[in-house]
Amino acid sequence: MDGTDWQQARQFARIAGHPLGPTAVPLTAAIGAALATPLVALSPLPAYDAAAMDGYAIAGQGPWRIVGRVLAGDPEPPHALPGGCALEIGTGAVVPAGADSVLPYERATRQGRMVSGEIESGRHVRRRGEDCAAGTEVLPAGTVVTPAVLGLAASLGHDSLAVHRRPLVGVVITGAELRNTGLPAPGQVRDAIGPMLPGLIRAAGGDLAWTVQIADDRSTLVDALRRHDSDVLVVCGATSAGAGDHLRGALEALDARVMVRGVACRPGHPQLLARLPGGRFVVGLPGNPFAALVATLTLLAPLLGRLAGRAAPAAVTAPLAGPVATHSRLTRLVPVVRIGSAVLPVGHDRPGSLWGAASADALAVVPPGWDGAEVELLPLSSVESLTPATALAAA
Ligand SMILES: Nc1nc2c(c(=O)[nH]1)N[C@H]1C(S)=C(S)[C@@H](COP(=O)(O)OP(=O)(O)OC[C@H]3O[C@@H](n4cnc5c(N)ncnc54)[C@H](O)[C@@H]3O)O[C@H]1N2
Ligand code: MOO
């Protein structure tokens, strides 16, 4: 049995849940969350006619008589500027009524209280609302709040934002053979999935709530899956059919509804998506670390993105150059680097090795029976995934 088609499995994960409840949070706390409502301009941008250069606001034809000075932060000049007059003005200051342009210092010739120079009508004034009018929807719901979104929201007068709650993820790492430090002895391996997951979870829109490491024991796994302090439970390394692989049995014991039981892809075939009776999701990642990464990008990231209320990312495609072993029934996930507008496989892509993925810009999605058409890319690194996890707690 090959399992669910790769594209279909990702789509199942994408539609398995609903965005978590909207909540209003102060601006700076919204970073990384998705907007629950469109971002609306509470004021026009700019909010007033503002000087775009330091110089002189002038009215009518020159030479002009300088009648005062207005700087950024000063209130609006109380009177309209009469023709033939100029106000010395700072960038960002309110341009008085009656002024039709700003003459920059470097274009101006000043003699005592008089100034002259070549002007172009309307130049160097940022008109009220020229970027957007009050009430304009500037960003749709589902937009991820980046630093630029925060700055824009502040420009538009917001003190808080309505965002979707970020899903909390609990991670259960299984395997009696796993070590967390030092050189592994024969029969032991360093846990390579634990260090990889916080950044992947964060980049996908979730927050790591806790991690536990357990031996291969069904009742311990069932106990871990009963924890209610997360929205999504990730189980690593118990997906297969071996005597030490207990995820399927544990899900049966808990009466879980299994939505994806294996995916027709290499690597990552034994991955799994299920829902527990209380509503929490379970994602099973295969123990082989590269297979775990593939499963994270196939099932976990789309699920978290949806729960976080993020709009589905637009597919990025590129021509795939270089030799790729295709499969007639299975999708292959191949680490690639960008070379110009194409991508090239980097090799080192055995299920147990992260070398290829660590050297790559993306995983190329090579469909069954690939005919040489452009392939979809799953990006591998984002600055967001490099920020430290907010809550990494061993339980
Ligand atoms: N009879 C079958 N055997 C296997 C099948 C199958 O279909 N039938 N599938 C193979 C594939 S494909 C994979 S992938 C693995 C998945 O196995 P599990 O998810 O049950 O994981 P384990 O058996 O515990 O471990 C597999 C492998 O990965 C190492 N591992 C586990 N966890 C980690 C970790 N956190 N960091 C680094 N390495 C880890 C573990 O030591 C094993 O070498 O099953 C195949 N077998
Ligand atoms: O597909 Mo396994 O997931 O080859 O490593």
UniProtKB/TrEMBL annotation:
Pfam family, one: MoCF_biosynth
Taxonomic placement: Bacteria, Bacillati, Actinomycetota, Actinomycetes, Micromonosporales
Pathway: Cofactor biosynthesis; molybdopterin biosynthesis
Domain MoaB/Mog: 170-306
Keyword match S-adenosyl-L-methionine: no
GO function terms (MF aspect): metal ion binding; molybdopterin molybdotransferase activity
Species in which this protein is naturally found: Phytohabitans flavus
Functional description taken from the UniProt entry: Catalyzes the insertion of molybdate into adenylated molybdopterin with the concomitant release of AMP.
GO cellular component: cytosol
UniProt cofactor(s): Mg(2+)
Protein name: Molybdopterin molybdenumtransferase
InterPro entries given in the database record: MoaB/Mog-like_dom_sf, MoaB/Mog_dom, MoeA-like, MoeA_C_domain_IV_sf, MoeA_linker/N, MoeA_linker/N_sf
Membership in a protein family: Belongs to the MoeA family.
Superkingdom, taxonomy of origin: Bacteria
EC assignment: 2.10.1.1
Keywords: Magnesium, Metal-binding, Molybdenum, Molybdenum cofactor biosynthesis, Transferase
Catalytic activity: adenylyl-molybdopterin + molybdate = Mo-molybdopterin + AMP + H(+)
